[in-house]
Amino acid sequence: MQTLTVALAQIAPRLGLFDENLERHHTLIAEARGRGAGLVVFPELGLTGYLLQDLAAEVAIRLDDPRLTALAAETKNLSAVVSFVEESADHRLFIAAALLEDGRVRHVHRKLFLPTYGLFDERRFFAAGDLLRATPSRLGIGLGLAVCEDFWHLTVPQLLALDGAQILINVSSSPGRDLAATNEVGLGTATSWRTLMRTYAQLTTSVVIFCNRVGVDESISFWGGSEVIAPSGQAIFSAPFFEEGLFTADVPLADLRRERLTLPLLRDERPELEVRELTRIVAERAGLAPDTTADDLAEAGLDVAPGDPIHPPIGFRDETAAGTAGPPRPPKSPARVPR
Amino acid sequence: MTDPAAVQPPEPLFELPPELAIDTDVARRVIGEFIRGQLRQAGFERTVLGLSGGIDSALVAYLVADAIGPERLLCVLMPYRTSSSASTDDAKEVVRRLGAASELVDISPMVDAFFATDPDASSIRRGNVMARQRMTVLYDRSVTWGGLVVGTSNKTESLIGYTTLFGDAACAFNPIGDLYKSQVRQVAASIGVPDQIIRKAPSADLWPGQTDESEADFSYPVLDRLLYWRVDRRRTDEEVAALGFDPALVARVDRLIATSEFKRQVPPIAKLGPRTAGVDYLYPRRRPGSARR
Questions:
Q1: For residue range A86-135, what is the model confidence (pLDDT) as tens digits?
Q2: Distance between CA atoms of B31 and A264, rounded to whole angstroms?
Q3: List of chain A residues with pLDDT < 70
Q4: What are the CA-CA distances from residue B105 to residues A123, A174, B87, B240 (Å)?
Q5: Are B115 and B122 spatial neighbours (Cβ–Cβ below 8 Å)?
Q6: What integer is the mean pLDDT of B210-215?
Q7: Cβ separation of A218 and B284 shorter than 8 Å?
Q8: Considering only CA atoms, which of A6, A10, A7 is closest in space to residue A215?
Q9: Is A44 a catalytic residue?
Q10: According to the model, what pLDDT value does residue A146 have?
Q11: CATH fold for domain A3-269
């Protein structure tokens, strides 16, 4: 297999200035092509900036927007991942990452997990995506797209890999924070991300590409540090922190086969086991199935009872009242005494 | 070979609690980008700040000079007649070392005129008027110099409310507002702020001999550590007691934090219409079209 040259566009998008950011995308796609790249990746909301708040509706585009079509037209014999606010036909706003290839929009991933805690407020302004699909690509290899927080959930890299992705691409707008001298790179956020990327690459035996933006929106600074990680978990390339630039890295795709033969983790995954157990957990949490391993008075789906239960939990287990709906309770196993 | 026992370790410039130690290179990098970003988004190229001779404003002057060049910074020295002359000397030394533009504005006549008919005004009132007079001068120079006012309040004084609302706390943006005093000292030492400014006891310099630590009866390293565990690391009463903090100090600091919450927030607007600023009309402070030019 050949070597894939990946270009990481570690840019500082201008907040709310779609056309200016679009121009920069055109320029950098041309530059990446000139440097022999087969894949160029832009960060989360690279076309709009991150901290949009009520501007989100003003910069949102439909997938048939001529500006996106024109950008896609620049991708003859090239793959590009770009990110923007997508407005659906029913007027929901999504944080989207699109794979542009050979002149068209090949695949769109809508961000699944919208952080709404700490310094984040995404769920207020955006709808969460519902679909997760690996996508084939002109590179002859499956790609998996994810946006920032999506990679703080174990299921996402695993599902993408099980669905056929061999290159996992995370586009981010990760704000740098938690400065401490004790962190590996002086920045808590960066330390965490670097750990995640290496872990996912190793556990999914996939190439992981992380493209994070730089620059400042209001109070928050984005730290860059984009990376390409080999399926062994070793970094192939690490971009500098806080520095804007188009960085290229050569990825030997033959390593994917070698790693997957050496370490057949994906071969040995047990998706049917996960489905079975997850189905059980979902039913238990909904109070729709008895939890035979749980303490008495434990919350539905959570096996351990609180130390000092003050009322029977809601759901299946609350069957003391006559005529309560739900399946008949199985014979009680020897009750464990709540702590 | 030198006998290691014979070598006296240099006395540290300041006490740095280990949990507050930061990577100063990363901090300076983030702050530099922040300063440039704020100016670009606002359409300004210049900045103005009040330089007291203390460590906070000295550090901000160094950070701004580092980020955009000293020629784009105006340092305004605004002593009152009771201000320590050593403070003014230290401020002048900062200006000299940076090569920034500067102006000396004696605020005594303005403040004295204000209190001319009220000679018994308390020192609190006088201190507040001095801080607000300095704010007035800075915002006036913001027009004549064409620069944004840079804030110089640190995280410690902001959390305990040791600031004057619309006085020293007023600014267009603040590069050091998330650094505790101990961290201000650390970054100041790394960027070359003169040692004597780092060493001297922090003071609002509102009357002779005043120092922050004597006035409020705490030491900055202890207060910074407590605030860090309490605010940043969400430790409970029992947990901070187990870390060795005096419960009486904890209670006092908790109260200072709670009673000064209003100083850290934009005043609330009574909600009446369909969209209300800060409630459900939420835009970035700087957005397309908001730059001055």
A1: 999 999 999 999 999 999 999 999 999 999 999 999 999 999 999 999 99
A2: 46
A3: 1, 308-339
A4: 49, 43, 14, 45
A5: no
A6: 84
A7: yes
A8: A10
A9: yes
A10: 98
A11: Nitrilase/N-carbamoyl-D-aminoacid amidohydrolase (3.60.110)
Nearest-CB residue to B37 (from A176, A215, A241): A215
The answer for B 24-83 residues in CB contact with A (under 8 A) is: 25-27, 29-30, 33-34, 36-38, 41
Contact A163, A134 (CB under 8 A): yes
Element (H, E) at B264: none
- CATH number of the B14-264 domain: 3.40.50.620
The answer to whether B38 contacts A216, with C-beta atoms less than 8 Å apart, is yes
Q: What is the mean pLDDT of residues B155-164?
A: 95
Window 232-271 of B, Cβ < 8 Å to A? none
Q: Which pLDDT tens digit goes with each residue over B168-185?
A: 999 999 999 999 999 999
Residue B46 DSSP SS3? strand
Active site residue A211: no
Q: How many residues does chain A have?
A: 339
Q: Containing H/E element for A299?
A: none
Q: Domain map of chain B by residue range?
A: 14-264
The conformation of residue B11, written as its DSSP 8-state character, comes to P
> A167 in helix, strand or coil?
strand
Q: What is the DSSP-derived secondary structure letter of residue B273?
A: S
In this predicted model, what pLDDT tens digit does every residue of B251-268 receive, in sequence order? 999 999 999 999 999 999
Tell me the one-letter amino acid at B90.
D
Angle at A49 between CA A185 and CA A148, to 5 degrees: 50
Mean pLDDT confidence for B52-66: 97
Domain boundaries, chain A: 3-269, 270-339
